[in-house]
Write a structure and sequence with these properties.
heterodimer, A: 293 residues, alpha/beta, Rossmann fold, 6-stranded mixed beta sheet, 4-stranded antiparallel beta sheet, 11 helices, B: 375 residues, mainly alpha, abc type-2 transporter like fold, 4-stranded mixed beta sheet, 15 helices, elongated, ABC2_TM_bact-type (chain B), transport (chain B), transmembrane (chain B), Transport permease protein (chain B), ABC-2_transporter_component (chain B)
């Protein structure tokens, strides 16, 4: 499946062989180090420094820092309640940070959130669109909400309908889930954002649709769009350029899939095991610290 | 792109979407356009406190011509139907069986006492329905007064020197209840359209998650509020037209104040009611809870506490204070006086100012409910 990324015209290799994944992951590790020329030229698209979010006494995100380069596919992973959704929401400006520095598309989110919004696209978990409007009406509406008009609006609506192979007159509410996801992606890309945020975009859709989805994602990234994605499918983490693993609000691992597997230790043969190992190591350490204290 | 043109563009896109959704949603259109019509007909025709053709038993214990003449006026009234009863016992049976609403009894000594200038006629009304009872009392009294005046005029023996008590009710001379119910209906309909319909709008977007999709766009809270207001102002204006036309031509209620002032005041109240619904919607974030709240917080008080049915001067102080807090009360006062009394400027300005203040306050707090995650 990963081969799709660079050999898009080749027929997909059927089995998700763990070894293939591993090799691919390794290759991405090197590809990542080979390409920062672009990143260095533009500087990071997202800068997160000491980000903290508290809800009352509860710390949902504890002092987190990372950068995301232009054109990168960055995955946020973590068990339920780990703080990945909170981090994600802060990144796309849905939730203000308690403290820390947050810069998206060169704009400080604390001071100029509205300006940042025009540069980001967002696909929510529910693929929330207006069910009683047609596909075209939904797209026209979101184009208007993003401030497009006239010829450019018509062009963009037409372009995304073609890009995602949509039926303009279909009623949005009765579409199958995979179709809705495509429509939601189309709506999020109307204004040609620099950064696309995807919140668990592949939950509930079939493997075929997922493969098509990742094909779209990688081609977007190649076109220079930065992708921030949350997922709980660990094999999908392999398709990311870099991933961050969070648990209990803390950033436990950050790097290419290969680096993260390495950090997990010898017994982690795939990402699934690596993920579990990292989370468990951290939880065990915390318990020990509590016992010691 | 200047921010003003961005505002304009986004507002157009948002409003167009709201209109499309409104037109697609048949149940909302039904509530918006047909329910008010049903309300008008129901309240206008069904809910009437008027007495018409009320049966009244007549007991003539004195069968003299003078006695018969005295009660003749009752038969002439369009509101009363005399039912002859042979004896007081029979009349009592009739009133117990609810066959008659009242009894008029001319006692045996009527002629005798009339000669002495002290004639008496007994009236018994069924107090179970106090409104009907007092109406009948008035009509019977009127009928007998007229008759006795005729008798006095003819005999020239009027001891009062032609001085008779002239009773008159101002504004609603005929005591027709539709005259004050129908203007009040305007209040009820505006409240229903406003609060109930819009109470679903923001909650629905919360439930379906579409608001989250909007939050990442450059759309601002004020734009959202305005776009949700616009289509329902049109629906409300149509309902207002229906109310005014049916008031004037169907129920023949006089419109003594300025029609323009009525329209402006109604639009003002409509916006207040719409904003109240939006505020409830944005606060509850749940369609079911929002619609229940909207009924409880707007429609019910507007019906019970605004002076629509019950005169606010007769209610306990606490209720008076509560009712004064309701925008509906101020609009009710305004509408009734505009319909029946005329344009009294100090009162129009005072109530319009109160409504406008409510509008600004609600627009602000509704924006706040949307701002939490926006800015």
């Amino acid at each position: 499946m990963l081969l799709l990324r660079e050999h898009e015209n080749e027929p997909a290799q059927a089995a998700d062989d763990a070894n293939t994944n591993k090799e691919d992951g390794d290759r991405y590790g090197t590809a990542e180090t080979a390409s920062p020329s672009a990143g260095e030229r533009d500087g990071p698209v997202i800068v997160v420094r000491d980000l903290v979010r508290k809800f009352g006494d509860f710390t949902a995100v504890a002092s987190t820092s990372f950068d995301v380069q232009r054109g990168e596919i960055f995955g946020l992973l973590g068990p339920n309640g780990a703080g990945k959704t909170t981090t994600f929401r802060m990144l796309c400006g849905l939730l203000p940070a308690t403290s820390g520095h947050l810069e998206v598309a060169g704009v400080d989110l604390r001071t100029a959130r509205a300006k940042a919004r025009a540069r980001i696209g967002y696909v929510s978990q529910k693929f929330a669109l207006y069910g009683n409007l047609s596909v075209r009406e939904n797209l026209e509406f979101f184009a208007g909400a993003y401030g497009l008009r006239g010829e450019r609006k018509r062009e963009r609506v037409k372009a995304v309908i073609a890009q995602f192979d949509l039926d303009a007159s279909a009623q949005s509410g009765i579409l199958p889930v995979g179709y809705k996801q495509r429509l939601a992606m189309a709506a999020g890309l109307l204004h040609e954002p620099d950064i696309l945020f995807l919140d668990e975009p592949t939950s509930g859709i079939d493997p075929l649709a997922r493969r098509a989805f990742w094909r779209t994602i990688t081609s977007l990234a190649q076109g220079g769009v930065t992708i921030i994605i949350t997922t709980h499918f660990m094999e999908e983490a392999e398709y990311c350029d870099r991933i961050a693993i969070q648990d209990a609000g803390e950033l436990l691992a950050l790097g290419t899939p290969a680096e993260v597997r390495e950090q997990a230790g010898d017994d982690a043969s795939d990402m699934n095991e690596a993920f579990i190992a990292i989370v468990e190591q951290n939880r065990a350490r915390q318990t020990n610290e509590k016992v010691a204290a | 792109m200047s921010s003003a043109s961005g505002f304009h563009r986004r507002l157009i896109a948002l409003t167009r979407k709201e209109v499309r959704q409104l037109l697609r949603d048949k149940s909302n259109l039904f509530v918006g356009l047909l329910l008010p019509l049903a309300l008008i007909l129901l309240f206008g025709y069904g809910l009437s406190f008027d007495v018409k053709d009320a049966p009244v038993a007549i007991v003539l214990e004195d069968r003299s011509p003078a006695a018969q003449e005295a009660v003749a006026g009752i038969g002439g009234s369009p509101y009363l139907v005399p039912v002859a009863a042979a004896s007081m016992d029979e009349a009592v049976r009739l009133i117990r069986a609810h066959k008659v609403e009242g009894i008029v009894r001319v006692p045996v000594d009527f002629s005798q006492r009339r000669a002495a200038g002290d004639a008496r006629i007994q009236l018994i009304v069924n107090g179970a329905d106090s409104t009907t009872a007092s109406a009948i009392e008035g009509y019977v009294n009127g009928g007998i007064q007229t008759a006795s005046r005729h008798i006095m005029d003819r005999s020239g023996s009027g001891s009062g020197g032609g001085i008779t008590l002239v009773q008159r009710t101002w504004f609603n001379e005929a005591g027709v209840s539709t005259w004050y119910l129908v203007p009040g209906l305007l209040v009820l309909v505006m409240t229903l359209i406003g609060a109930f319909l819009t109470s679903l709008l923001i909650a629905r977007e919360w439930e379906r998650g579409t608001l989250e999709s909007l939050f990442v766009t450059p759309v601002r809270p004020l734009e959202l509020v305005l776009s949700k207001l616009a289509p329902y102002v049109v629906i409300g204006a149509i309902d207002m037209g229906v109310c005014l036309i049916s008031a004037r031509f169907l129920f023949e209620v006089p419109i003594r104040g300025s029609l323009l002032v009525i329209i402006v005041a109604s639009l003002l109240y409509l916006i207040v009611a719409l904003l109240l619904g939006l505020f409830i919607s944005g606060t509850t974030r749940n369609q079911f809870a929002a619609s229940q709240m909207a009924l409880l917080a707007s429609f019910m008080p507007a019906m019970m506490l605004s002076g629509f049915v019950f005169d606010l001067r007769n209610v306990p102080l606490v209720i008076q204070i509560v009712s004064q807090l309701l925008p509906a009360t101020h609009f009710m006062e305004l509408v009734k006086s505009l319909f029946l009394a005329g344009t009294i400027w100090p009162m129009v300005l005072k109530n319009c100012a109160i409504l406008a203040a409510y509008g600004v306050l609600l627009a602000f707090v509704t924006g706040r409910t949307l701002r939490k995650r926006l800015d």
